[in-house]
Amino acid sequence: MNYFLNYENNTVTVDTNRLVNAQATDVNDIVIAYGDSRDETLTASLDVWINEELSKIDLSGLTMDEARAAVFGEWDFLELTLNELDIDITDYPELRDPQNDLINEYFYE
């Protein structure tokens, strides 16, 4: 399922639909717009952003436990970014699937 980060009237939401009248952008632009309380309507693909961020992670040399601790700890770009937008990651557990997939694919394939 595709997820979008939508920004309108200084409110950020996560949804499976993008705002119809929104300008397409990236997650970083939405973080900036939210921080600046801009009067804009924006949407960004969370799936694209998550995959781009995950592609930067190198698990080589780590045990599975170390990889989990890093991906869901110090390298947890997803939770850190959503926190900046006042969104609780626990409301969207399915957004964690790509992080779990990264670890499982690395250690089991």
Number of helices: 5
Strand fraction equals 15-25%
Coarse structural class: alpha+beta
Q: How do the strands of the widest beta sheet line up side by side? A: 2-1-4-3
- First-residue to last-residue Cα separation: 23 Å
Catalogue the unreliable spans.
Answer: none
Topology as H/E string?
EEEHEHHHH
| Average pLDDT metric | 95
Helical percentage? 40-55%
Number of strands: 4
Q: How does the major sheet shape up?
A: 4 strands, mixed
Shape: elongated
Radius of gyration: 15 Å
Produce a short descriptive summary.
With 109 residues, this protein is of the alpha+beta class.
What attributes does this structure have?
5 helices; about 40% helix
How would you portray this structure in words?
- It is built from 5 helices and 4 strands, in the order βββαβαααα.
- β1 and β2 form a beta hairpin.
- The chain is 42% helix and 16% strand.
- The model has no long low-confidence stretch (mean pLDDT 95).
Layout: helices, strands, pairs:
Layout (H helix, E strand, L loop, with lengths): L3 E5 L2 E5 L7 E2 L2 H9 L5 E5 H9 L9 H8 L5 H8 L12 H12 L1
Parallel strand pairs: 3-4
Antiparallel strand pairs: 1-2, 1-4
Helix pairs in contact: 3-5
